[in-house]
């Protein structure tokens, strides 16, 4: 990560504005040195940074490690990769995994198959037919479509963990104007998007970016909340000098229309439904948007490189993963050192960076105050617009396996796409005898 900035997704190295200054071996220990107290950064290193074998990676061009395709990856986790094809990734249990003991193999499940689907619809059919025991996708009418076919064994749990947001590219001359972003935030009826676009499985988000009720103790109730109002959105644009054309779309004094493209991921049927509603809501406020679906690979590349106007994006994966407090997701979204990785909007503000850098050195009461100040940045500057509170999509079947995480035993984030938690889940699963 030090030699190739593209791999340092969480801006940990000091050269990228992060806290880490050195990593050295000392006998059988690894010593990490930071330029200041850095307790929260241990999560990024111990939980979010994979270990790779030196004898393979040291032979590669160090500045181009991000493009190295390892055809025989080696891991220390509970499973090793047996085969990787576009249709399926097959994992086999690691006989040398450190938790294994005589007579009690860990993991107890010998083989895990992770098939790929082009859309939620095909994945949902596979799940409903009982061909999959673990699901991680949006399922419309989940009670009748999935649970009621075997209510004794089929279950779901959708804990809210992150934001699904409308991301403006702040390099765009129109979207860089606060009034335009204020109008976007006012024009979106978050409650309707959550109820209809996400079938009520996700709740409406709030402009602070703090997920409720998961992080309710961090939420600053004193901040004014952005309430849906197309009329206020229209008045905001008029007050900023925009005029409405004959086609109903606002334009600036140079004739540039508030007309944008929103990039999203192909096959995400809930996002498509949500964006259909958002398109209608923005049009009512004089803002035209066109939705553009892309495969996840080019979509992520476009967002990281700034090749977009607006984007619909969630956290996790290449985006900032949720962590033990709102600090982690908000740092990923707003910290300038993350531009090119998880700071998609290209938001850059020295005062905000200073808040993120101050947080690790503070004690809990002061950390709460820092988060409140960052929430105020979200409300006042609107660097992005949280629309719904993204959940861990999670369906599970106890017919053949037990040991799943539940709301009463949340030992790991439950989705099969959440790293490294999915490995933790697999070490807890055992076959039904």
Sequence-ordered SSE layout with sheet pairings:
Layout: E1 20-26, E2 29-34, H1 41-46, H2 54-57, E3 79-84, E4 88-93, E5 111-115, H3 120-128, E6 134-135, H4 142-145, E7 154-156, E8 160-168, H5 178-187, H6 190-197, H7 230-239, E9 243-244, E10 250-251, E11 259-265, H8 269-284, E12 288-294, H9 296-305, E13 310-314, H10 326-334, H11 350-358, H12 364-381, E14 385-391, E15 395-397, E16 401-402, H13 421-428, E17 430-431
Parallel strand pairs: 11-12, 11-13
Antiparallel strand pairs: 1-2, 3-4, 4-5, 6-15, 7-15, 8-13, 8-14, 9-10, 16-17
In short:
The chain has 433 residues and is of the alpha+beta class. Helix content is 28%, strand content 19%.
Describe what you observe in this structure.
The protein is of the alpha+beta class and 433 residues long. It has 3 domains: 5-67, no CATH class; 79-159 and 394-431, D-Maltodextrin-Binding Protein, domain 2 (3-Layer(aba) Sandwich); 160-391, Roll (Dipeptide-binding Protein, domain 3). The protein has helices spanning 41-46, 54-57, 120-128, 142-145, 178-187, 190-197, 230-239, 269-284, 296-305, 326-334, 350-358, 364-381, 421-428; strands spanning 20-26, 29-34, 79-84, 88-93, 111-115, 134-135, 154-156, 160-168, 243-244, 250-251, 259-265, 288-294, 310-314, 385-391, 395-397, 401-402, 430-431. The chain is globular and about 75 Å long. The protein starts with 19 loop residues before the first strand and ends with a strand. The relative contact order is 0.16. The mean pLDDT is 93.
